[in-house]
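Supplementary Note 2. Why include the ligand at all?

Several targets in our set were suspected to adopt different conformations when bound, so apo predictions alone were not considered sufficient. For every target with a known small-molecule partner we therefore ran a joint prediction. The input for 2-(butylsulfanyl)adenosine is given below.
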Amino acid sequence: MSDQDVPEAQRRAEQLRAEILEHDERYYVQDAPIVTDAEYDELIQELRRLEEAHPELADEASPTQQVGGRASAAFSPVVHSSPLLSLDNAFVEEDLRAWDERLQRRLGVAEGDAPVTYGYVCELKIDGVAISLRYEDGSLAQAATRGDGRVGEDVTANIRTIADIPNELPAGAPAVLEVRGEVYMTTAAFERLNEWAAEHGHAPFINPRNSAAGALRQKDPSVTGRRELSMWSYGLGEVKGGPGLARHEEMFDLLRELGFPVNPEIRTVDHIDEVVALCAHWEQHRHDLPYEIDGVVVKVADLARRADLGVTTRAPRWAIAYKFPPEERTTTLLDIMVSVGRTGRATPYAVLEPVFVGGANVERATLHNQDQVAAKDVRPGDTVIVRRAGDVIPEVVGPVLAARPEGLEPWVFPTTCPCPVQSTLVRPEGESDTRCVHPECPFQVQGSIEHFASRGGMDIEGLGERTVAQLIELGLLHDVAGVYELDFDRILELEGYGQTSVDNLRAAIDASKDRPLRHLLVGLNIRHLGPAGAEALARRFGHLDDIVAADAETLAAVDGVGPTIATSVRAWFDDPAHLAVIERLRAAGVNLEGEAAPDVEQTLAGLSVVVTGTLEGYNREEVEEAIKSRGGKAPGSVSKKTTAVVVGDGPGASKLTKAEELDIPVLDEAGFEHLLATGELPG
Ligand code: IVH
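The joint prediction is reproduced in token form.
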């Protein structure tokens, strides 16, 4: 940067400082942040870079030099015996390595020298609220939040309700002991809290961290108690009369002995490469944990080295926080729209100002259904928090109410389908889904044909989303039976189609005519009827005509079907329009028969047979087929409900042991044949 840039840099630095202070106020004092932690970190980073590039801008009062936060007036202030410091952040591997090199240099290691070893303790960075617990003569005397690091808030009464935190320490505890750690809410407790909120008509809580912070700042401690908070301890403040400690791990031993919760994932390693590997591991596996973490904290293990390294005004030099990429971001909710799928279900979704979150650009996020939109009370124009965690599809967590512009109206679920037919959307009594009930709704037609041609349905290669959309648009395709009535000469005239692609499509469609009945049943898109139910029906009846002729009671009696599917199947076949589709499929030569001949005697009805090892007369599939076609079940493991275990060559030891334990008859292949033929166990 040149000198001419200084005024610009100064202007930007002032702007950043003001913005950061405002966010601090909202976060620490009002408990109502309007940016995510990651966005806040970015502002701090930008300011720090500016101040480094322009030393003349340095200012002791700059937020980069402060720990951040301020105690609110609602709870009595507590002056910490020693400040609760912040941590410097690392965002990429190079930051960790640069930190380590800085430490080596500070400890007097010149380039080319062998590095000093001090051990790195890697701890999970728990996404919760920092707390300092002061014990005097073995009793909890005071618990305080971090506040601005120097002065926090007295939350002793609330802390006493947390089961993880001891009120009394065992005999021999230090006369004064300050334990520092993180109070957090497990994912399960957070989910229970939101179930409770939904049942009582409250807006859902945003995330476990905010919920923990809110719970700690309740005026009524019994409310805190009901919020199921937990704690992990990770450090000490003032200690009088304690044992001398040489390493950080020894502190954890002491804390464990005194009854404090110490996180089981803490590891000490000797080389920065291992630190890097552990950080990468947790970035991958963060969602395997039953609580939320936002990084890994790396600390020098050797306490004498720590003392040599010292602290700056805001953070220790001997520790660093490796922060994962953010999974939550704020952005603007531009609109709420509704999509209609193959079953006619209308799903509201958020149209967002594009935002990079959880490693991807997000511009749409599901809002599930009408009740969810109402519970979250998100309104077009709101600033919303968007979350994309792990493999989870992006979702709108909720609005940032503090940032809501005035005059935003609540969003109202539309009463008409967004399709050109504009049919009415209906929400049946007692159901959470709203549906378009018009059979010609183009969204439903498109979805149902795509589903018909999908792998689980008639498995027609080349008939995917785009082709279906194109054929519908050109008026060449209107419903599933139309797949077999396509005018291929017309398709050949279309742009993008040559003789080969048309021939391939025709061949794929022809081949699909021979699919077994269960595929056709799945492809027909009958509500509630999935592959398992379809297979059960195909097996029991053997022909589509027999299913069409069966009453609901007969259908419901089929193992694996039940009343919900039966009613839905019956209703589907009661619709004359659907029967007309079946007739067109028949005329086109589509197979309507099941694989198994329906006249196999149902000798195994109600029985369950487990086979282990190889039989001479059957391969795996044939064994299963032999059992299922006779009305039996062929599960993969032995249980109390198993009728018999059939043992072939090379059986699995665990199945045999289990059979013995549960006293279940064991048969050889001959015994199996007998069972198949008669439904009875041999002699
Ligand atoms: S050590 C002097 N260890 O992260 C060292 N902090 O900005 C102070 N945190 O406010 C912190 N897990 O609330 C430490 N294992 C851990 C932690 C941890 C979460 C929080 C803590 C602190 C913030 C750092």
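The mean pLDDT is 91. The longest helix spans residues 6-29. Comparable summaries for the other entries are listed in the accompanying table.
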